[in-house]
Amino acid sequence: MSLEAFNNRNVAEGDYFLVDIEDYPTTGWDKFKRVVKRTFKGELFVGLWVVMREMIRFDIHTVQYPQEKMPIGPRYRAVHQMKRLWESDTERCIGCGLCEKICISDCIRMDTRIDENSRKEVTEYTINLGRCIFCGYCAEVCPELAITHGGEYENASEQREHFIMYEDMLTPIDKMKAGKQLEFEGFGAITPHEDERVKKTPLAY
Amino acid sequence: MDSAYLIETIIKVVVILLIFSALAGIGTYFERKVLAFMQRRLGPMNVGPYGLLQVAADGIKLFTKEDIIPTNVVGPIFKIAPVITAATAFMAAAAIPFLPPFEIFGYEVHPIVADVNIGILYVLGVMAVGLYGPLLGGMASANKFSLLSAARTAAVFISYEVVTGLSLLAPIMMVGSLSLIDFNEYQAGGIGDWIVWSQPVAFILFWIAAFAETGRTPFHLIANDHEIIDGFGTEYSGMRWGLFFIGEYANMFFISFVIPLIFLGGYGDGSLLGALGLLGKMSFFFFFFLWTRAAWPDVRPDQLMWLCWKVLMPIAVINVVITGFVMMF
Q1: Predicted local confidence at residue B217, as pLDDT
Q2: Selection from A9-18, A188-197, B7-16, B222-231 with the highest mean pLDDT
Q3: What is the pTM of this model?
Q4: CA-based angle B256:B259:B173, to the nearest 5?
Q5: Residue A177: inside a domain, yes or no?
Q6: Domain match, A97 and A40 both
């Protein structure tokens, strides 16, 4: 079913109809007639048949969780991941600190230094998952699409402060070499058909 | 009283107690499975193959849980109430013939503890005494939900005693005896002789009343989870609560035996086929208790009283009168 059916609020057209609800009986005779009608209508047997049909059909919807897992959407915001550049396999993070600034629960902590090539290098980067509310602002604000969310949602811990380190979030180099890094499709990521939407910078004025 | 009879009776009592205590446990397993399948779930799956050992796990849990007696309860009554429920449920089994008589090692066994000549009256009477379990337990619990449940228990049980009694009166008039074995002999000729064909109204009424007597779902307001928590069982824990549970399930099994014995030919002519037939009919009625729980909503207490006094009781009385006239002429 498409969304248009719900977006159309004009009840005069379409498949809208009034539900046929009878008025409540007022006189004793009407009440008696309703009782008799309901008694012999066999509605109770409809209910019995429905559950029996489901039992015979045996269309079980249970997911036996630890053994089976539901697939989760690519936009799901679970534990963060750090991506690498496709071209050079180096880490994308440039240490700008925007994620640390925007984090509304103050759970990101990072430290940077100027390395020997006079480039900014991230020396420490941790996320306190006990504080993180998985709002997705960090992934949204990241100019390099470096910090994103992954699909790992089983993060039970023995303590409330459950930190995750930069190395744990970073895509492993062998996985990168195999070309299996997945791009995050959630908020802040490049939308599909982005190339077609690129416009010339209006410099003519 | 000769000792052979005494030993036989004691063995029968022990066997019935053991079998139906175990069946109460297995009944919970079946209930959970059937309800799950009807709701597209799997039910217990993790303890043992297909969750078969869930019964054992529940049993261990019930037996080893702390037996809490809350502060403001009336101690002795609070402690004795679950015993009343379980004991009366099993006492009712004394007059029920579970199987036709059979021979074992050349000794003829009658699978009925005591063929008293007031059989069905005894069964109904003792089951009615079971009312004191929820009533006393609820009143002694010092809990307003338990108290509500106790009030509802008294209302429901006493009202539906009227319906069971009056609906059974017509078959009793036809058979001319109260013993369940005489009921069985009356219908031994085959399906055509079943009382349900001559007394369909009494059959339906008794069946409806059986739901009220056992407190099962259309009439489950005695311990309705969504209104009054667990009713009379709210303050109970461990094996005392377990006794309430065993009593409820044993009652379901016994009433599932009584309905086919009275209306559906019982074990028929006493052959192996007849015995299996009785077990099959019993299984159907037990399954129906679970089936309705999945399918039907609960009724309100006032609707239940309305149904009893304004609908079922007049129909039962009219049924008795018509039966009397038909028998007279």
Answers
A1: 79
A2: B7-16
A3: 0.79
A4: 155
A5: yes
A6: no
Higher pLDDT, B251 or A191: B251
Q: Give me the residue from A35, A52, A60 closest to B40, CB to CB.
A: A60
Which residues are CB-contacts of B273 (< 8 A; sequence separation ≥ 6)? none
Task: Please indicate, yes or no, if residue A50 is contained in any of the structural domains.
Answer: yes
Q: How far is A29 from chain B (nearest CA, A)?
A: 15
Interface contacts A/B by beta carbons within 8 Å: 37
B138 half-sphere exposure, CB direction, 13 A CA radius: 24
B277, two tokens: 């037939």
Q: What distance in Å separates residue A38's CA from the closest CA in chain B?
A: 13
Cβ separation of B40 and A61 shorter than 8 Å? yes
pLDDT of B317 over the 90 cut: yes
- Could you tell me if A86 and A180 lie in one domain? yes
CA nearest A32 in B: which residue?
Answer: B311
Are A21 and A102 found together in one domain? no
Q: Is residue A66 part of a domain?
A: no
The range of the structural domain enclosing residue A39 comes to: 7-57
Alpha helices in B176-271 (DSSP H): 180-186, 195-198, 200-214, 225-228, 238-263
Answer yes or no: do A135 and A86 share one domain: yes
> Do B291 and A60 make contact, defined as CB atoms within 8 angstroms?
no
Q: Rounded to whole angstroms, what are the CA distances from B2 to A154, B8, B10, B48, B157?
A: 70, 10, 13, 47, 39
Of B34, B296, B311, the CB nearest to A44: B296
The predicted model gives B115-143 an average pLDDT of: 86
Is residue A144 located within the same domain as residue A175? Answer: yes
Say what the ipTM of the complex is. 0.78
Q: Sign of torsion, CA B186 B180 B320 B197?
A: negative
Residue of A nearest to B293 (CA): A48
CATH number at residue A94: 3.30.70.3270
Of A35, A55, A64, the CB nearest to B38: A55
- C-alpha gyration radius of chain A: 29
Question: Does residue A1 register a pLDDT over 60?
Answer: no
| pLDDT attached to residue A194 | 78
Say whether both A47 and A116 belong to one domain: no
Number of domains in chain A: 2
Looking at the domain assignment, is residue A28 inside a domain?
yes
Contact at CB, B42 and A60, closer than 8 angstroms: yes
Q: If you average pLDDT over every residue of chain A, what do you get?
A: 83
